[in-house]
Design brief:
By secondary structure, the protein is of the alpha+beta class. The protein has 5 domains: about 70 residues, OB fold (Dihydrolipoamide Acetyltransferase, E2P); about 60 residues, OB fold (Dihydrolipoamide Acetyltransferase, E2P) (Beta Barrel), CATH 2.40.50; about 240 residues, no CATH class; about 55 residues, no CATH class; about 100 residues, Nucleic acid-binding proteins (OB fold (Dihydrolipoamide Acetyltransferase, E2P)). Helices cover about 30% and strands about 30% of the residues. It is built from 16 helices and 33 strands. A hairpin with a 7-residue loop joins strand 2 and strand 3. The longest helix has about 30 residues.
């Protein structure tokens, strides 16, 4: 019997140092700590993981290697931040001793579960377990069962697993729910005195038809000087969620709500998101507002920021507002048409000032009661959406501009700006070269000209065969927007100052923004030295939510397309790689892979990176991103969330020609 390997701490010397990074554990069990800015990862052997799991941010004690070819190795000495504390797996009970066995692909130690922490789970139960603690002297982590997974169906289980794998808890702890339940909606006299009262001004919300959390409202009234007073009113979450409270810590840990096709995993308990803070019609609500005086020519004459009281008169859906815009009649038609006219003016001005006009298209699933997808709806951004978007952008920009001018000891105050960097030359040059093949030129002498070239291309390409490919590739050249206290502006929007202020029910950075703005208004600044760390956490959680949302959508695509196995559809090539190309069906916008293995019957295909295409070595047949073609659905794997398609040749003669090309090579 082999002896168990014990942890050997790294001896401290002048050659050791401590670094911080993210632990990535491979399927083989070896660990690599990815340190930002470092050229190489730090190797950590399994017996040196300490109390860390895959994805955790850890501190590692490192020994410098002086020998040639040796890799840097280290030992985890501390877990700075857990990626996740909830895990899906099964319970095993042996002689009244219970353990939780995680179902993760990555190695995770079994949790010891005390009998009183089983919460009804029995041997073999599929459960969600939460890590409670892992003390220094504990051989195993200690956990508790928080949910027994009696999933309605396979799809329900898959959505839960997607959330858990992305590091999001499926439920709130009892203490969090208790704190939320204790909060009262009553408008107090004390608060009334602190706020501007806007309850007698026409106010309404515009949201998706199925929304439950209304975090923004717009008010409008005529002023005696001929201008309009337009208020952007945002749910005052920070009034209820106090800094460092149990609720606040839970919201920060999630940092964002996650929107899957059949559910929302909220950042805050429903008592707050759907009741206390939701700007429901015919209810008085606490809000944080930006109020503008605007002329009929869309000139902004005055701005005011502060806490308010509002009373929403009506709850509109986007579809209702769009109908009013198109028909020029309906409930509150004059205010809606005026707001739309101003929004379109702001929009034109943004694009003149360098914003990039990427069009957005959203694919939504129509679901049966059990969550099964029964249809697909493609939603495009219309003027009703743009009306809300422009006023939210204006409020976000105004708040960021206000805070950017405030200094503490002659230094900018730490603040979670939303920034978007300029495209890198590395991505831009190949895209510009590819666009040139279609006759579109790029002026790259400065950032403004690049934005102008993008907008000209996006306008000129409308309705052309190459529209899809150039729009998709254009989006891919863009940097990712993130939160940071280093304010470099937002390139895509063309703003020097920008932040997120308008969605505090579903985004934690907005809550931070509200608090800091109030400190500025009160002239009582509390400088947060951990702001950059908080920004990074929020950016990471946003990325996790986006990955979960993509995985959820992909699962529903596969679930939906299973019914079409063997059927043929028109499609467009949406991506290429050395191992095949992806095609998206024109009818459903569902993407699947056509493998080079399946194409090898006709020819050997190689990737031409500069042309975003696969090219046949003998036939010169080219599959280029953006090309239209016909595909057959051949496999739908729900476990892997993967669709496999086959290319369908529409011409028998072409097929013979390709086969002849293949045969000709063999005969030689």
């Amino acid at each position: 019997m082999s002896k168990k390997k014990t942890e050997k701490p790294v001896k401290k010397s002048s050659q050791t140092k401590i670094v911080k990074g993210r632990l990535d554990i491979s399927r083989s069990g070896m660990g690599f700590v990815i340190v930002e800015g470092a050229e190489t990862d730090v190797i950590v052997k399994p017996h040196n993981f300490g109390k860390a799991f895959h994805g955790d941010t850890v501190r590692v004690q490192v020994e410098k290697e002086s020998g040639m070819g040796k890799r840097t190795e280290g030992v985890v000495i501390d877990v700075a931040e857990r990626k996740q504390t909830d895990f899906i797996g099964t319970v095993e009970i042996h002689k009244n001793i219970a353990f939780f066995i995680a179902g993760s692909e990555k190695p995770i130690p079994d949790f010891y579960i005390a009998p009183e922490k089983l919460n009804g789970a029995t041997d073999g139960s599929r459960v969600v377990a939460r890590l409670v603690r892992w003390d220094k002297n504990d051989k195993k982590p200690q956990g508790e069962i928080i949910t027994i997974l009696s999933a309605k169906n396979e799809s329900d289980m898959a959505m839960k697993e997607i959330l858990i794998d992305a590091g999001f808890s499926l439920s709130f702890e009892e203490a969090v729910l208790k704190e939320a339940e204790a909060l009262l909606p009553k408008i107090t006299r004390e608060e009334e005195k602190k706020r501007k009262d806007c309850r007698d001004i026409l106010t309404f919300t515009i949201d998706p038809a199925d929304a439950k959390d209304f975090d923004d409202a717009i008010s409008i009234r005529n002023l005696d000087n001929g201008n309009y007073e337009i208020g952007v009113h945002i749910a005052d979450v920070s009034h209820f969620v106090k800094t460092d409270s149990i609720l606040d810590k839970a919201a920060y840990a999630r940092a964002t709500s996650v929107y899957l096709p059949d559910r929302v995993n909220p950042m805050l308990p429903e008592k707050i998101s759907n009741e206390l803070c939701s700007l429901r019609p015919n209810e008085d609500k606490y809000t944080f507002s930006v109020i503008f005086q605007i002329t009929h020519r869309a000139e902004i004459k005055h701005k005011w920021i502060g806490r308010t009281l509002i009373h929403s008169n009506h709850r509109f859906s986007y579809e209702e507002v769009q109908e009013t815009i198109e028909s020029k009649e309906g409930l509150h038609d004059k205010p809606i048409l005026l707001l739309n006219s101003l929004a379109q003016s702001f929009r034109r001005e943004r694009f003149r000032n360098g914003a990039i006009n990427f069009s957005s298209q959203e694919v939504r699933f129509t679901l049966a009661d059990d969550g099964t997808p029964i249809g697909i709806v493609i939603k495009e951004s219309k003027e009703a959406h743009q009306l809300v978007e422009e006023f939210m952008l204006l409020a976000n920009r105004t708040v960021a501009e206000y805070v950017s001018k405030i200094k503490s000891n002659k230094e900018p105050i730490p603040f979670p700006y939303r920034i978007h960097d300029t495209p890198s030359e590395e991505k831009l040059l190949p895209f510009a070269a590819f666009a040139r093949k279609f006759g579109y030129t790029f002026d790259m002498k400065n950032e403004m000209e690049v934005a102008s070239s993008f907008n000209k291309l996006l306008k000129d390409v409308k309705g052309k065969p190459e529209q899809h490919v150039l729009e998709q590739l254009g989006i891919r050249t863009m940097a990712k927007a993130v939160y940071t206290s280093a304010n470099i502006g937002h390139y895509g929007l063309g703003f020097e100052n920008y932040c997120h202020f308008t969605s505090p029910i579903r985004r934690y950075p907005d809550v931070m923004v509200h608090r800091i703005v109030q400190e500025c208004l009160d002239k009582d600044l509390k400088i947060d030295k951990k702001m950059e760390e908080k920004c990074k956490h929020c950016s990471d959680r946003e990325r996790g939510a986006m990955e979960a949302e993509r995985a959820g959508n992909k699962y529903k695509q596969v679930e939906y397309m299973k019914q079409f196995l063997g059927d043929e559809f028109d499609a467009i090539i949406s991506g290429v790689s050395a191992f095949g190309f992806w095609a998206e069906t024109a009818e459903h916008k569902c993407e699947g892979l056509v493998s080079v293995r399946d194409l090898s019957e006709f020819d050997d295909f190689k990737l031409d990176e500069a042309d975003y295409s696969l090219v046949g070595l003998r036939t010169k047949k080219r599959f280029r991103m953006g090309d239209k073609l016909k595909i057959k659905v051949v496999a739908a794997n729900l476990t892997k969330r993967q669709l496999d398609y086959e290319w369908v040749m529409e011409s028998g003669k072409a097929l013979e020609g390709l086969k002849a090309g293949k045969g000709g090579r063999k005969n030689k």
